[in-house]
């Protein structure tokens, strides 16, 4: 592939309006065969809208597209797929009651003598999974798979399309380093086969590894285009946010010596982790790192009472409060901001005010009766406190990912807990919203709260943690002080 190659896809003056509001303002974009174009921007910049137009989910209001030199205007995702355009969505689109293989081939099952050829379907799905390093039966139902494994299934689904253009929307958001590397290997093979790729990600460091060109969007417009991905991250970020960026991570506070949360010999009833020991002090941020499958999410869910514990104890300020349910943990002052905010953190078709109120019923009721006035007033206070860009009566599904995450954080922090656990707090969130969430995390520690942050983003866990506990294959492989922690030292423990 050279820059002189004819584009496989061209967009010219693409505009999109919803009623009187124009959200895309004359976008021009070319993608050539065998190249990766990184499409970057904050939440709301227009990246997803462009992707939906190209993949046939929504039509443009005006402008033209050409695909392999011919006019292109898909009226449905099926039409786009048939033309050779596939998309991996940021939000998982799997059907939990179907098997992995059925999800991979849904709508296009291989047939033999008029019947679904399950053997061929399973074999082809297994091949796609193995290419990504996922050793799991394609006959297993999707229900119960971890978020990371569901993401790998979505990617395997796209790999089986034999598409000539792939749109990857946050494909590594739920993946660790090893899984991300395997995806990059597949991208390199696709490039060699002449497949064009549009790559959307908030993980800017990985852009340098995978992209050939960078297109930056802001507020529905294309504002910058770089002919190389070898661009300083700060320069990319400043193009995204439209201003100079002073810092990404705030200064960390110094914790006290007072232990708040103590975990002793904790072992999962499901075999996800074993013999975990650590302490989180007042005003301390403990990061938990490790590869996908290391048991990080399962550990914090157990501490929060959501997953069963086989043995061991959880102590809060010296008192055994080992939770048997989320209600136990919440009542004792331990709250969890889960990794999947849409499925586990919010009631999406309810309002911001209602979502905040659900976790704080005693504060929005009088004599056991919840009043709309109290809910709205309580929510407004916390919307302002945590910088949510939205109004109480607005539905949660109308918010950007960053603001949805702030609502989840707000509803739990309004309870004034002693321990806050955040699992993948900035997954799929743009750089501007990330910075404000980091400020919230550090602000909690400054107020004396004990904070635990689980993250697959190594830069993130290094940037916000006083100490980092590293897990590998369900075991605790070490705890590093902030001064001793770096990419190499964490990964050495993660692969031990």
TrEMBL record:
PROSITE patterns: ABC_TRANSPORTER_1 (PS00211), ABC_TRANSPORTER_2 (PS50893). CDD domains: ABC_Carb_Monos_I, ABC_Carb_Monos_II. It is found in: Cell membrane. Gene3D superfamilies: P-loop containing nucleotide triphosphate hydrolases. The keyword Repeat applies. One of its GO terms (cellular component) is plasma membrane. Residues 9-244, 258-496 form the ABC transporter domain. InterPro entries: AAA+_ATPase (IPR003593), ABC_carbohydrate_import_ATPase (IPR050107), ABC_transporter-like_ATP-bd (IPR003439), ABC_transporter-like_CS (IPR017871), P-loop_NTPase (IPR027417). Its main location: membrane. One of its GO terms (molecular function) is ATP binding. It comes from the Bacteria. Keywords: ATP-binding, Cell membrane, Membrane, Nucleotide-binding, Repeat, Sugar transport, Translocase, Transport. It is a peripheral membrane protein. This is ABC transporter, nucleotide binding/ATPase protein (Ribose). It comes from Sagittula stellata (strain ATCC 700073 / DSM 11524 / E-37).
């Amino acid at each position: 592939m050279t820059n002189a190659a004819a584009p496989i896809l061209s967009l010219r003056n693409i505009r999109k309006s919803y009623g009187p509001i124009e959200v895309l303002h004359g976008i021009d974009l070319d993608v050539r065969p065998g190249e990766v174009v990184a499409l970057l921007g904050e939440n709301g910049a227009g990246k997803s809208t462009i992707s939906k137009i190209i993949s046939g989910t929504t039509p443009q209001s005006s402008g033209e597209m050409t695909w392999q030199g011919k006019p292109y205007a898909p009226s449905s995702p099926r039409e786009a797929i048939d033309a050779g355009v596939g998309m991996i969505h940021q939000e998982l689109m799997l059907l939990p009651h179907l098997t992995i293989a059925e999800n991979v081939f849904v709508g296009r099952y291989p047939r033999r003598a008029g019947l679904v050829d399950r053997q061929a379907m399973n074999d082809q799905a297994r091949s796609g999974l193995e290419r990504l390093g996922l050793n799991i039966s394609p006959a297993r139902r999707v229900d119960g798979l971890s978020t990371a494994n569901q993401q790998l299934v979505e990617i395997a689904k796209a790999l089986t399309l034999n598409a000539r253009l792939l749109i990857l929307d946050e494909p590594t958001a739920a993946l660790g380093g090893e899984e991300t590397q395997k995806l990059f290997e597949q991208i390199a093979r696709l490039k060699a086969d002449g497949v064009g790729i549009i790559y959307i990600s908030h993980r800017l460091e990985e852009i340098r590894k995978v992209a050939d060109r960078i297109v930056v969007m802001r507020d529905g417009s294309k504002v910058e285009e770089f002919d190389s991905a070898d661009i300083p991250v700060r320069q990319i970020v400043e193009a995204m946010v439209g201003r100079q960026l002073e810092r990404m991570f705030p200064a960390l506070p110094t914790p006290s010596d007072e232990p708040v949360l103590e975990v002793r010999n904790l072992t999962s009833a499901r075999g996800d982790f074993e013999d975990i020991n650590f302490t989180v002090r007042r005003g301390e941020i403990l990061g938990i790192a490790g590869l996908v499958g290391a048991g990080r999410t399962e550990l914090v869910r157990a501490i929060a009472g959501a997953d069963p514990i086989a043995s061991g104890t959880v102590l809060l300020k010296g008192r055994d409060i080992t939770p048997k349910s989320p209600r136990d943990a919440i009542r004792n002052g331990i709250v969890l901001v889960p990794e999947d905010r849409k499925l586990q953190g919010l009631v999406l078709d309810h309002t911001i005010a209602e979502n905040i109120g659900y976790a704080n019923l005693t504060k929005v009721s009088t004599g056991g009766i919840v009043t709309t006035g109290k809910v709205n007033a309580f929510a407004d206070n916390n919307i302002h406190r945590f910088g949510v860009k939205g109004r109480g009566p607005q539905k949660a599904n109308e918010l950007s990912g960053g603001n949805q995450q702030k609502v989840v954080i707000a509803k739990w922090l309004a309870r004034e807990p002693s321990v806050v656990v955040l699992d993948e707090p900035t997954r799929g969130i743009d750089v501007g919203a990330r910075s404000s969430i980091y400020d919230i995390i550090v602000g909690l520690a400054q107020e004396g709260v004990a904070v635990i942050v689980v993250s697959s983003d190594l830069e993130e866990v290094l940037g916000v943690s006083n100490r980092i506990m590293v897990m590998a294959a369900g075991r605790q492989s070490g705890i590093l002080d902030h001064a001793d922690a770096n990419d190499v030292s964490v990964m050495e423990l993660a692969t031990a």
